[in-house]
Design a protein that fits this description.
With about 120 residues, this protein is mainly α. It has 2 domains: about 80 residues, Arc Repressor Mutant, subunit A (Orthogonal Bundle), CATH 1.10.10; about 40 residues. Helices cover about 65% and strands about 10% of the residues. The chain contains 5 helices and 2 strands, in the order H-H-H-H-E-E-H. The chain has a two-stranded antiparallel sheet. Strand 1 and strand 2 form a beta hairpin. Helix 2 crosses helix 3, helix 2 crosses helix 4 and helix 3 packs across helix 4. The termini are far apart.
Length: about 120
């Protein structure tokens, strides 16, 4: 598994989402959705959906740029990789703890069943 496979495993991100993330990481400055769409050679609406998924996972951030004469637009930039890694480690730890709890519940439930069952005849 490649390290980018973690993005898919932890958050169910699609290949396009990873392409958009790579485009943002490669850029020296924050990008608009139009610029991201150009970088991944997709329609603006398709890139926008990928950007929204990346925002929801916390992999990218959004800033508002205001025009002097009124109005604004948004630009996007990648989140610091160490923060993303910390979040994934926390998710893994939470999952591991939950699985341990479920295994213990399974053992307790079926251990009691074994003691309550009548002995099998030979």
């Amino acid at each position: 598994m490649e390290c980018e496979g973690l993005l898919e495993c932890f958050h169910g991100l699609k290949e396009l989402d990873k392409e958009c993330f790579r485009a943002l990481v490669a850029s020296e400055e924050p990008l608009t959705v139009d610029e991201i769409a150009d970088a991944v050679d997709r329609e603006r609406s398709t890139a926008y959906r990928a950007v929204q998924r990346l925002l929801q996972t916390g992999f990218i951030g959004k800033d508002q740029i205001n025009y002097d004469q009124g109005g604004y637009y948004h630009v996007y930039s990648p989140t610091d990789p160490s923060k993303i890694a910390d979040d994934m480690q926390r998710l893994l730890n939470d999952w591991y703890a939950k699985m341990g709890q479920l295994i213990q519940e399974f053992e307790t439930k079926y251990e009691q069943s074994d003691t309550a069952a009548p002995p099998a005849e030979s």
